[in-house]
Amino acid sequence: MENQKPRVAIQGVRASFHEEAAFKYFGTDIQTVECNSFKQTFEALKNKQADYVVMAIENSIAGSILPNYSLLMSYNFPIVGEVYLPIQLHFLTLPGVKFEDVKYVISHPIALRQCVDFIDEYPQLKVIESSDTAACAKRIREEQLTDTAAIANSLAAKLYELDVMERRIESNKKNFTRFLIFTHHENAKNESTNKASLCFQVSNEVGSLAKVLNILAEQEVNMSKIQSMPVLGKRNEYNFYVDIEWNNTQQYDKAIRQILNHTQNFNILGEYERYVEE
């Protein structure tokens, strides 16, 4: 891989937020592998058609993307990094189109909901949901739609040569999405780590989870995220997905050894460097 561009699988088409996240993590000198679904991104990694996967896992407004937790457990590829991306949405049209000419606005349902205040100001616009923000921008360019606007990012505007008619139309200006980076086990390098994603189960008894959390606190390991998901087909049993951060590796190692005594099906999903905004 030293002499070739890393192949990065994303859900969606080029200029989607997933590609923007990939650029932010890897830089722009990558080969983007477009996939129709999150499952297809992991299939691309499994079949060696990609070297990495970039996958959204949570959004500050929409919350955790629960189906993706199931996917990462099913495929069991290691997490090797993370990146946070501010979600900035713009009103894009073909060059020369005037606002009064626009009859339709198309985008992903979540993007449309995040721009509801702007859309409500113009009741004459008919809202059309689609599967991908960047794909909407691409469609406007390819089909030369002069009566339609897309809600997408500035990367899509640049790639598909659209005008930004209205900038930053999202209702919440502090909306971020967290993306995880996956790769093959042989590519995973743990040279400098201070964050880990864990998955485990505890017994259905009083204080079982508290014992794990107390161990983290005693070893001064910070829990930055906890998410529970039911174990398929088992009543009152849950997988706990936990993100932890540390400053002292010895304390982290000690915490893991102690936690093993109080959990079942314990799995370290990845050890990596926590994202710090530059």
Summarize the structure in words.
Helix content is 28%, strand content 32%. It contains nine helices and 15 strands. The strands form three sheets. Strands 1, 2, 3, 4, 5 and 11 form a six-stranded mixed sheet that branches. A five-stranded mixed sheet has the order 8-7-9-6-10. α2 runs parallel beside α3. It is elongated. The mean pLDDT is 95.
Strand-helix topology:
Elements (H helix, E strand, L loop, with lengths): L6 E5 L5 H10 L4 E5 L2 H9 L5 E8 L3 E2 L1 H10 L3 E8 L3 E4 L10 E4 L1 H6 L1 H5 L5 E4 L3 H11 L4 E5 L1 H6 L3 E4 L9 E8 L11 E7 L6 H11 L3 E9 L7 E8 L3 H11 L4 E9 L6
Parallel strand pairs: 1-2, 1-3, 7-8, 7-9
Antiparallel strand pairs: 3-4, 3-11, 5-11, 6-9, 6-10, 12-14, 12-15, 13-14
Helix pairs in contact: 2-3, 8-9
Rounded to the nearest angstrom, the radius of gyration is: 21 Å
Could you give the count of β-strands? 15
Unreliable runs, pLDDT <50, ≥5 residues? none
- Indicate the percent of residues in helices: 25-40%
Largest sheet: 6 strands, mixed
Mean pLDDT: 95
Discrete helix count = 9
Q: Structural class given helices, strands, pairing?
A: alpha/beta
In short:
This protein is of the alpha/beta class and 278 residues long. Helix content is 28%, strand content 32%. The chain has helices at residues 17-26, 38-46, 66-75, 109-114, 116-120, 133-143, 154-159, 208-218, 249-259, and strands at residues 7-11, 31-35, 52-59, 63-64, 79-86, 90-93, 104-107, 126-129, 148-152, 163-166, 176-183, 195-201, 222-230, 238-245, 264-272.
